[in-house]
Amino acid sequence: MSFRLSLYIYKVDQQAKSNTSTSDPCNKYTSLDQPWRANNETGLDICDSYFNWNGWYRFFYYGMNIRMAESCVPTSRCGTYYTLWLNGPHPEIEDGVVTRQVCGNAGYDCCLFGSTSIKVKTCPGNYSVYKLFRPKYCNTAYCTDVNTITPNPQVNTSTSFYATTPINHRFDPCSKYSAVYDDWRIPDNTYNYYRGHDDTVVEWKGWYRLYIKGKSAQIAETVWCETYGTCGGYTAVWLGGSHPRLEDGIVTREIYRSARYYYEYNDNQCSFTRSGSVQVKACPGDYYVYKLVKPDVSSPMPTYCAVVFNSLTHDPCHNYLSLDQPWRANNETGLGICDRDFSWNGWYRLFYYGMNIRMPESYVDANRCGTYYGLRLNGPHPKVEDGVVTRQVCGNGGSNSCYFRSTPIRVKACPGSYYVYEFVSPLWCHMAYCTATTPISYSSDPCNKYSVLDEDWRNARSNRKRGHDDTVAEWSGWYRLYLQGKSAQISEWCVSYTTCGGHTQLWLNGSHPQLEDGIVIRDIYGTNVNYYYYDYYYYYYYYYYYDYYYYNSYHNQCSNRYRSRPIQVKACPGHYYVYKLDKPELSIPMPTYCTVAFDSVADPCYNYVSLDQPWRANNETGLWISDTEFSWNGWYRLFYYGMNIRMSESCVPRYRCGSYNTLWLNGSHPQIEDGVVTRQVCGNDGSDHCNIHLNPIRVKACPGSYYVYELVSPFLYETAYCTDVNTVNPTAAPTTTATDTGLSISTTTPMAYSFEPCHNYTVLDDGWRNASYSYWYWNPNSRGHDDTTVEWNGWYRLFFQGEDAQIPEGCVSYMQCGGFTSLWLNGSHPQIEDGIVTRDVYASRIDESYWARCDTHRKSNPIQVKACPGDYYVYKLVQPDVSLPMPTYCTVTSPKLSYDPCYNYEVLNDPQRATNQTNWNPWGWWWSWCDANIKWSGWYRLLYEGNNIRMPESCVSEGMCGTDAPLWLSGSHPQLEDGVVIRQVCGSWSGDCCYFSSFPIRVKACPGNYYVYEFVSPAVCSLAYCADVNTITPVNDPEIPGTTDSTTTTSTTVTVDPCAEQSCTEEEWCGERDGVYGCFCNQSDPRPRDKSYDSRETCESSSGTMSLSRCQLFEAGFPINVLHLSDPSCNGTLQNGRLVFHFDNDEHICGTNLTANGTHFIYENSIQGVADSAGGAINRKKELELRFSCVYKLRQTLTMDMEFSPLQSIVHKTLPDGQGLYQVRMIPYQDAAFSQPYNGTENIEVDQRIFMEVTVQGVDGRQIATVIDSCWVTPVNDQNYAVRWDLIINRCPNPGDNTVKVLQNGVSTAAHFFFKMLAFNGNYSNVYLHCDIHLCLLQNNNCAALCRKTEVLPPYRAFNCAIDLLLGTSTPRGHLLSPARPEKMAMERFSKVARFIGLPKLPSAWLKEILDSHKVRGRVQYLVDWEGGLEKCIPACPVPM
Q1: Are 732 and 707 in contact (CB under 8 A)?
Q2: For residue 1412, which of 78, 1141, 1171, 1313 sits 20 to 30 Å off, Cα-Cα?
Q3: What are the b/e assignments for 201-221, b being 16+ CB within 10 Å?
Q4: Distance between CA atoms of residues 1423 and 1441, nearest Å
């Protein structure tokens, strides 16, 4: 992206002004004149958390000084509910800046919660300034005290807010305005979260043009007020009256504010109060400009509302879409249709069974027009002569016919007695535009168009996209159907719970024809027209999921068919069909043709996935499994303990096949000669054997007496495909051996391996395997996996989101692990010295509550495990027992400790955790502590009233420890020598001491007779960790040795503190790692996973600075003394806990490399180092290399105003981190020596020469040059203005303007050119100069301009001149030519001009042989060697002027 710096030239003199800024907050603050903050104002639920606080603020009260309240302010004051006041007196002037706490009154405690502290300063003039910060909680606001109001002599409090129309303007505001890009100004309820803006704090000055999302916008008129709109603040400001026309010129319009605010949802929200006035003008190009002023400060946080209307490029009376939807009539009942789902785009004409109809202008009853809230026009329709008008849209809320004010629309009356409407998406769902029931006239639809349909919303296997209607399509001819590029066909069956993109699904009544049948006619049927669509929750023990419910027809959606118009169908060679589609019956609400796609694959009899899942048999009980969660993809062959089985062909009772609703094949299996056939799938919901009609599937009979099925995901939860145990038959194919669950399964450790599994494994990083309750709670679609379908082969190392993981060593309640049966290790993991061991694997089934039942478990097949150096494990995983329903191996993370938790923990001093505390508080009401709500992070030490205490090791009665189910340690505490151990945690409930098996935790015994625990979030709520009151001991931290006295000698034992010399900051703490002391980061500080070590980079000019966090480096094992830049001699320096590295392009190059990529030039370097924590015969080396760079933009665009003194504009552009900073200047001079700049007081006459210098500062001039790409002038301050005159094009003078000469371009950081002053024809008085430049690396030798001037040369001889020889360079080798006559004339002309402008005189020998020719890109190019006569290259051709 380039930026533009503008220069505009006036022919009048004007003295420039300059302002001096200061850092004293008394002189640099933002004024907040918000009277609603006073402590005598009522609450408005304003929330200061939405405000974008930045810097210092001064409070006013209608222009008078006021300061914050120093005492408690009652709630529901100061425009909010929780009032914030200053807890302490204001400082004196001599106190300077002080810090004060801010208290929030919650009603029963004036300082219940303290907000973030603020800074305060008292200033001369009897006022104070405050550095305010965003409060922590919402519905809080800073309060002011009306008793502290004092006059402000600097403010005229009698200033009126109402502007008057000026008599005349010296300029046209349509050509000179500021652009306002604020998307939050739109009065749409979807932008309610963009609050916190306030136009009273904006310094409005001049004229403005509004934009929303890049489109031209205008201030919303009061008649367009929308319900629940905020416009970014708390008080919406609207334009009173219509916008002016072009011929009206500048007019004055009053502005009004809404009387209610966004949170007051009632019919008075769009009542108004006058707030002031603004000036408005309509401009050519169909837009408006406004002279905005500060709104009335008595309004709480007012903001101007803006709306967008597309510019009309055509007459909508002849460019519209027909809507023939009779269900929109105001005499039709509601159907729950939502116009918000419709993709509105452009203009629409309404019909009623082919007749003209229009929107109603009066009251419409609720539950009409195919929806609940019918939308009508709030005002009369326009006449033809009115053109396009804007009308508000109202919705009947029951008590008020215009309770809902939706987004306004545009309307136009057309010749022929009809209207067109520019419909937009309504505010809410269950709203639809209504039509009046009285038709006007007949009309025909002239459509002649063939189309290939590839619209994925027609998919019968999806119900997510709605809002389509095939009655509005212009059907003509024949169609071939596709779905996402795959050949498709119209469905032959009704499918429950699907929409096919609309409201009524249409399907083929009968089978498709064969090739020999030719063209046939098939009836089209639709589903019951009365079904509704709603969402509701199944809530099972903190887990929820969505399902669909249909109001009138429930599962019986397909029983009541509605017949539509028949269509013609033909089967074509290549296994596809074509259809002559027709417009469906208009009485059907939003009908759409349904399509299904089938992949063309190789023979599925030899390309399938084996499903050996015995729980699918129709004699197995239900387990609440849902096939919707399975990732179906392709063809499947069904097995039953290794034997062939096929799907049931008859109804299966409910609560079988491992699920609740059973799915069976509605039709017989095919014969081999039938090939691939399609069959409908029925679901038994208890009331009807085929009440659920699911997606059809394809089936094929294969040699060997088995079948394969192309299974797809059902729509309904708790449904599963069933197999028939009566169809079981042996198979000769490779089988899976059935496991006798009554026998103990064991294997022996192999004697030897030919490879090391710690170095030869497959990585398994499946997030859904995580046993954490929180993972599957927030990822409800992470189930449906089955490890019996995986082809396990070899050894595996487990990860979870990139971190090392391991199989858990016990069952945890509520763990799911991606399947239906959770697999865990029965026993502890081995040590490294144990080698490869065998461990039993146990399985815990999930019940209907989605709870892993740890009280009952079964064995699966055992696996081999090995501990590896580096603190991780590898597993030889095998296929689990197929009798287990959808088993999956679970994982838990196994973080590595980089510190000693005995010295890095948080204290947990909660008396309610004691084993003698019940869950009834002292006030007699029930309370249950929930540790699942705590964000556990790291290690904790338990205290009880300042004494050591530890977790109980035996059962604790339920209802103790301040919770329902107390958690206790299932195992003894470790000894000091045991280090860190893992212990199981149990929760007591319902008479069972270990009813809840919570996640295991790590424990360590510490010197001083205390323990630390790595607590994690329990599986469910109402569980809390206990502290055993029988284990209380006094705190006995190790004592520091003291002084020992003797009669003969006095010896003093001194303990040297190794942390004294570390100088750790407040954000760090001192500790030991691998025998070395250093500074660790505080536990609360974030650690980025990308190992960037909190890097911070600063770039300026040709230098750069990179700093890293010392504590993060130390935690990673890198002492600061081993790190350096690319040059090993360039080490870092320690500054405030950060290691700082610096390089520049002078004496500290430090291995920096300079490159360019076409858009930027880049300084690159890296921080490197090697650390070794071992010694002697071994090493533990770690290498670090952090690459960083400073990037500078090559291209800029400048514009300057010669009105300013000293006629130079400077742009300081600070780019994001890693981006360089430099300055660009463009200075006009009076002389060729560039020594006398214009000072802004002289008149510049037409045809007077102006010398221009474009220079870049802040870059290395030895390596970088400035190149002017183009320069041009315009009569107005708009770089893209249509009227312009080019001075420089493609680095060279405009061939059409011989007054432009380029003197220097692309050889240094300064570029020079001159041109003669000009004036534009017409009513223009100013000239604005603009230039595009870029920066070029001199090392590439391509910076100098290559200009061409062929008009002075013969047409048969091309002449290119690139003068790029610097002083002291050698002449390029090549054949020397004598100059031709045109060339001599050009050089003589150059000599004269050079002497005229003062360039050095050239030697006479140049006329003989100074043109050296050589080939450049296959063409002859001439290089002019001025034999050192010029100090710099003059890049022009054939002369530089």
Answers
A1: no
A2: 1313
A3: beebeebbbbbbeeebbbbbb
A4: 17
**Identity of the residue numbered 697:** I
Peptide bond into 1206 cis (omega under 30): yes
DSSP secondary structure string for all residues of 397-416? -SS-TTSEEEEEEEEEEETT
For residue 843, the cross-strand partners are 823, 858
Query: 646 near 618, Cβ under 8 Å?
Result: no
In degrees, to the nearest 5, what angle opens at C-alpha 159 toward C-alphas 156 and 165?
145
Rounded alpha-carbon distances, angstroms, from residue 1034 to 948, 1003, 1076, 1151: 6, 20, 31, 59
924-940 per-position pLDDT tens digit: 445 677 888 888 888 99
**Both tokens of residue 643?**
């034997």
Most confidently predicted of 150-159, 333-342, 1309-1318: 1309-1318
Place of tokens 């009206």: 248
**What is the value of pTM for the model shown?**
0.38
- Both tokens of 1261, joined, read 């001039």
- Distance (Å, whole) CA 1060 – CA 1064: 9
- Say which residues have a Cβ less than 8 Å from residue 296's Cβ, sequence separation at least 6: 161, 257, 275, 276, 302
Q: How buried is 749 (Cβ within 10 angstroms: 0-12 exposed, 13-18 middle, 19+ buried)?
A: exposed
Q: Give me the pLDDT at residue 779, please.
A: 57
Place of tokens 């790029």: 1364
Return d(Cα 1159, Cα 1192) in angstroms, integer. Answer: 9
Return d(Cα 1165, Cα 1128) in angstroms, integer. Answer: 12
For residue 93, the SS3 value is helix
CA pair distance 348, 355, nearest whole angstrom: 14
* 464, burial (CB in 10 Å: exposed 0-12, middle 13-18, buried 19+): exposed
**What does the DSSP 8-state code read for residue 1116?**
T
**Tens-place pLDDT, residues 1287-1315:** 999 889 999 898 899 888 888 888 999 99
* Rounded alpha-carbon distances, angstroms, from residue 1251 to 221, 1224, 1229, 1273, 1328: 51, 17, 5, 15, 15
Provide the pLDDT for residue 402.
79
CA-to-CA distance for 200 and 194, rounded, in angstroms?
Answer: 17
- 3 state DSSP class of 1421: strand
Residue 16's pLDDT band, with cuts at 50, 70 and 90, is very low
How long is the chain? 1441
Reported as type and span, the H/E element at residue 773 is: helix 773-778
Per the CB < 8 A criterion, the answer to whether 1345 and 1267 are in contact is yes
Give the residue-averaged pLDDT of 761-783.
Answer: 71
What angle is formed at CA 765 by the lines to CA 759 and CA 767, rounded to 5 degrees?
160
Q: DSSP string spanning 869-928?
A: TTTEEEEE--PPPTTSSSEEE-BEE-PPPSS-GGGS-EEE--GGGBTT-BSB-TTS-B--
DSSP sequence for 326-394: GGGBTTSBP----GGGS---S-EEEEETTEE-----S---SSBTTSSEEEEEESPPPPGGG-EEEEEEE
- CA-based nearest residue to 60, from 199, 200, 162: 200
Residue 894 neighbours by CB distance under 10 Å: 18
Sheet with 1209-1212: list strands edge to edge.
1209-1212, 1223-1229, 1249-1257, 1310-1316, 1301-1304
Question: Measured at the alpha carbon of residue 1263, what is the angle toward residues 1262 and 1268, in degrees to the nearest 5?
Answer: 105
Estimate to the nearest angstrom the gap between the alpha carbon of 689 and the chain centroid.
47
Please give the structure tokens belonging to residue 1234: 């560039």
C-beta of residue 541 within 8 angstroms of C-beta of residue 1020: yes
Task: Please tell me the distance from the alpha carbon of residue 629 to that of residue 743, in angstroms, as a whole number.
Answer: 32
Whole-angstrom Cα distance, residue 675 to residue 684?
28
